[in-house]
Amino acid sequence: MEERAISQAIIKRLPRYYRYLGELIAQGVERISSNEFSKLMGVTASQIRQDLNNFGGFGQQGYGYNVKNLYEEIGKILGIDRVHNIIVVGAGNFGKALAGYSDFERRGFRIKALFDRDPSKVGNEYNGIEVHPISGMKDYIRENNIEIVALTVPKAAAIEIAQQLVDTGIKGIWNFAHTDLKVPKDIVVENVHLSESMMRLSYNIVNRGRGAGRK
Amino acid sequence: MEERAISQAIIKRLPRYYRYLGELIAQGVERISSNEFSKLMGVTASQIRQDLNNFGGFGQQGYGYNVKNLYEEIGKILGIDRVHNIIVVGAGNFGKALAGYSDFERRGFRIKALFDRDPSKVGNEYNGIEVHPISGMKDYIRENNIEIVALTVPKAAAIEIAQQLVDTGIKGIWNFAHTDLKVPKDIVVENVHLSESMMRLSYNIVNRGRGAGRK
């Protein structure tokens, strides 16, 4: 694979390709023309070709795409052909919701433990995942090969915990707190800012007549 | 304001500007130069100027931005200077988490009710918000001026409920289900696809060396 920077726009589209390919597999579809795939996705065929060409192509002239093969290749590109160990910090409703989200396990994301500072929550289990005291977080990360920490705690706590995570060897933070985290470059931060998502929805509702849906 | 289409990229940045301006207000900052604001946001000053020029500017040469004024103006652009009534369909952990998210109320998003098909959940209250039977959803929407429906139900249920919503007069769907919803153009859909967010995180972890963070 060529060494080049891939834009975040493509990285946003790949999981969606992956999801549709997974649905096609579930429906027993073995191959699909680039035109059919483009129709299904609501994206131009040339956009799909361009996106996939960044990773070496995968389509064959006159045949289209082998669904299972393309699914597996995109899975490899996304790094979900192997297991990622995760802990969730914050055993509130969002933390519990993540613990109960069985879809992750299927995609190689394994939530190993929840952590909370509230002693009354420690020892509880959600979907078979136990709540540990926050004081044991750093040791747990080191001993259990944890790669990703999901933060479902309020803003101030998220900033504080992110600082504690810096020297633990984790590779990514999945941040649900309504703030931007400042961590060294070798830790990837993926934000889920729900208030901002809601504001985009509001904007697009208020401005429906003004071409607000334009990509 | 000029009638023109605003790109979704700008619409993604506006809520972030809004969040930082809110933090500045909380800190008692009254005005900020475009350079300081740019540093704080990690975005170039010309980017900020360009973005805001789409809506008429707001900055003054030699003065910078009036923080409170810009905050209010962006709030108006985002349509959060007025109240949006919301219901949440699905009283599972995600639904409960949304009901408990007090941040929304502050920004003009008022969650009025939860709905669920499970009779054992009906009548429960979370953060003072009651769970209603799903059979009453359409009437409730019409009688309570509901503008936005958040769907925190599994994929198949989300597709089914989205169809029921088509003729209710709602303006937007906040979709947490792992599927794309097909609804008429006058209903805006904002997706929160957590699995896809997790896959982007995975990609960026696996490809850290390859310029994966490029915007």
- Spell the H/E element sequence of chain A: HEHHEHEHHEEEHEHEEH
Structural class of chain A: alpha/beta
Strand order of the largest sheet of chain A: 5-6-4-3-7-8-9
Greatest interface by residues involved = A-B, 66 and 66 residues
Low-confidence stretches of chain A: 211-215
Count the DSSP helices of chain A.
Answer: 9
| Helix residue percentage of chain A | 40-55%
Radius of gyration computed on alpha carbons of chain A: 20 Å
Strand content of chain A: 15-25%
Shape of chain A: globular
The CA-CA distance between the termini of chain A, in Å, is 29 Å
Oligomer: homodimer
Average pLDDT for all residues of chain A: 89
Main β-sheet of chain A, in a few words? 7 strands, mixed
What's the number of extended β-strand segments of chain A? 9
Task: Please explain how this structure is put together.
2 copies of one chain form a homodimer. By secondary structure, chain A is an alpha/beta fold. The first copy, chain A, is built from 9 helices and 9 strands. In chain A, the strands form 2 sheets. Chain A has a 7-stranded mixed β-sheet with strand order 5-6-4-3-7-8-9, sandwiched between helices. The first copy, chain A, has a two-stranded antiparallel sheet with strand order 1-2. The two termini of chain A are 29 Å apart. At the A-B interface, helix 1, helix 5 and helix 9 of A face helix 1, helix 5 and helix 9 of B.
Q: Key features?
A:
215 residues; 9 helices; alpha/beta; 9 strands; 7-stranded mixed sheet; homodimer; two-stranded antiparallel sheet
